[in-house]
């Protein structure tokens, strides 16, 4: 091998041999980029490791942004167990109402709980002036024929409610609300108690939190078959 100093006279003669050799290699890499672009076995291992670490970082960051870690502790198993005591107990707690609403959405029947909530809000009206616009909104949304979120009411209950809508009072929707309440209590509520969503809460698991697993892989000889070592990167 020829002396690097003869090939590259611009090198500092007073520099150490290590430093001179580094300059020679750096210059060679710049002149022959096609050699450095060939990935060797060591480069492949490093790239795979970086990709796995990057993927894990983004996954944990994604979960943190969506608040899945904080939600896991929002409902204790003891609190979830109490929801099984009665339907009234479930709806009386905000977390229970929220969990039941999400369950109904999976069954495409969330209009029932939304109607019940609207009626509860209606009964909190403090003046008669507030009743008419609220009554109209509830009727147009949940009760009239082909309403966007029409609830399942028997003919008599729907007729009485429709007649009273012209001069609404605080009890205008009581019959309809009670009908929907019994429907949820007898039909949807038992299914909720048997659902994975509820059982996971009782067991202390968060049904909305995906399991975060650390990816790992053991490399074998087969992974590097046909890969020739590139000594220019060492």
From TrEMBL:
It comes from the Eukaryota. Pfam families: RGS. The keyword Heme does not apply. Residues 86-202 form the RGS domain. GO terms for biological process: negative regulation of signal transduction. Keywords: Signal transduction inhibitor. PANTHER family: REGULATOR OF G PROTEIN SIGNALING (PTHR10845), REGULATOR OF G-PROTEIN SIGNALING 18 (PTHR10845:SF155). This is RGS18 protein. It comes from Pluvianellus socialis. The lineage of its organism: Eukaryota, Metazoa, Chordata, Craniata, Vertebrata. The gene is Rgs18.
């Amino acid at each position: 091998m020829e002396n690097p100093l003869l090939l590259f006279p611009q090198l500092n003669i007073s520099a150490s041999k290590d430093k001179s050799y580094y300059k020679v290699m750096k210059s060679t890499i710049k002149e022959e980029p096609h050699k450095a672009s060939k990935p060797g076995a060591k480069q492949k291992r490093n790239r795979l490791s970086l990709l796995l670490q990057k993927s894990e970082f983004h996954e944990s960051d994604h979960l943190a942004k969506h608040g899945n870690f904080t939600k896991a502790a929002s409902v204790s198993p003891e609190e979830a167990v109490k929801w099984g005591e009665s339907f009234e107990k479930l709806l009386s707690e905000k977390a229970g109402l929220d969990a039941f609403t999400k369950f109904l959405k999976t069954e495409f029947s969330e209009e029932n709980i939304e109607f019940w909530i609207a009626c509860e809000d209606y009964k909190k009206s403090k003046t008669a002036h507030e009743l008419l616009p609220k009554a109209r909104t509830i009727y147009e949304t949940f009760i009239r024929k082909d309403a966007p979120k029409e609830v399942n009411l028997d003919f008599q209950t729907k007729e009485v409610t429709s007649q009273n809508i012209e001069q609404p009072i605080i009890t205008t929707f009581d019959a309809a609300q009670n009908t929907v309440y019994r429907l949820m209590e007898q039909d949807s509520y038992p299914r909720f108690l048997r659902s994975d969503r509820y059982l996971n809460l009782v067991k202390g698991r968060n049904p909305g939190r995906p399991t975060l697993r650390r990816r790992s892989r053991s490399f074998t000889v087969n992974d590097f078959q046909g890969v020739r070592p590139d000594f220019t990167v060492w």
